[in-house]
Automatic annotation (TrEMBL):
Belongs to the small heat shock protein (HSP20) family. Residues 113-132 are annotated as: Disordered. It comes from the Bacteria. The keyword GTP-binding does not apply. This is Hsp20 family protein. Keywords: Stress response. Gene3D superfamilies: 2.60.40.790. It comes from Paeniroseomonas aquatica. Pfam families: HSP20. Residues 6-116 form the SHSP domain.
Length: 149
């Protein structure tokens, strides 16, 4: 269902792709420190693009060690034809995006079976029988032309 994942050079943020049902996938990204307002998910044609941008709130703070970077990211996933994004949610620092490939609709159509004359045009000049003494007008054939005998 996912054709290709566009690779970031640094692998940030890390992510998992899991199959949750026969035609369903879940992409989970580790986005600790990001709020819902910091994240954006868009579908651009067949690409699912997830962007994160944190506001710099370090003003007036003194860090002795800063290992949690407030940096932006973009992850792009190329979706196979027909994949639909069902929804997304943020839970305990993980952003989950559910994908589904809808089952094709089973369409049943009854095709009438015609007799041997119903499928083939009558020979030129032939007039179908309609009983004794019935008058018959010229019968139209395919594409609007008429059989004029």
């Amino acid at each position: 269902m996912l054709d290709r994942v566009a690779k970031n050079s640094d692998g940030y943020p890390p992510y998992n792709i899991e199959q949750t049902a026969e035609n369903r996938l879940r992409i989970s990204l580790a986005v600790a420190g990001f709020s819902m307002d910091d994240l954006q998910i868009t579908q651009e044609d067949n690409q699912l693009v997830i962007r994160g941008r944190q506001r710099d709130d370090s003003e007036g703070r003194i860090f002795l060690h800063r290992g949690i970077a407030a940096r932006q990211f973009q992850r792009a996933f190329v979706l196979a034809e027909g994949i639909e994004v069902e929804g997304a949610w943020l839970d305990n620092g993980l952003l989950h995006v559910d994908l589904q490939r809808p089952q094709p609709e089973v369409r049943v159509r009854s095709i009438p079976i015609n007799g041997s004359q119903g499928h083939h045009a009558a020979p030129r000049g032939a007039v179908p029988s309609r009983g004794m003494g019935a008058k018959v007008a010229a019968m139209p054939i395919v594409e609007g032309r008429s059989n004029r005998g």
